[in-house]
């Protein structure tokens, strides 16, 4: 029972983290067409998380003047999306950080 409860809490925390990071990204770029709630729609979530999020991250990095304006590769966004997004957002918030 404990494993089930911890698994549900961690999953909910992961969803919460993705939601807050995507909202920060949308607020930074001020793009009204970028909707973070797309990550909850089956099948559309893959297109959104693998194509639209990296495009938006690249745009945010360019706006911030980052030394490396490219988003993390598609492989990272497929297998480790929370890591890839947080890594890219850290580069947006600190554009002069070492690459």
TrEMBL record:
Membrane spanning residue stretches: 5-22, 34-51, 71-86
Top-level division of the source organism's lineage: Bacteria
Keyword annotations: Membrane, Transmembrane, Transmembrane helix
Official protein name in the record: DUF4234 domain-containing protein
């Amino acid at each position: 029972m404990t494993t089930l409860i911890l698994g549900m809490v961690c999953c909910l925390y992961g969803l919460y983290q993705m939601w807050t990071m995507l909202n920060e990204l949308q607020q930074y770029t001020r793009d009204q067409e970028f909707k973070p709630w797309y990550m909850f729609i089956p099948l559309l979530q893959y297109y959104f998380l693998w194509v639209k999020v990296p495009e938006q991250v690249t745009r945010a990095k360019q706006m911030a003047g980052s030394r490396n304006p490219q988003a993390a590769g598609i492989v990272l966004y497929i297998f480790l999306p929370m890591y890839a997004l947080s890594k890219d957002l850290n580069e947006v918030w600190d554009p002069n950080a070492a690459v």
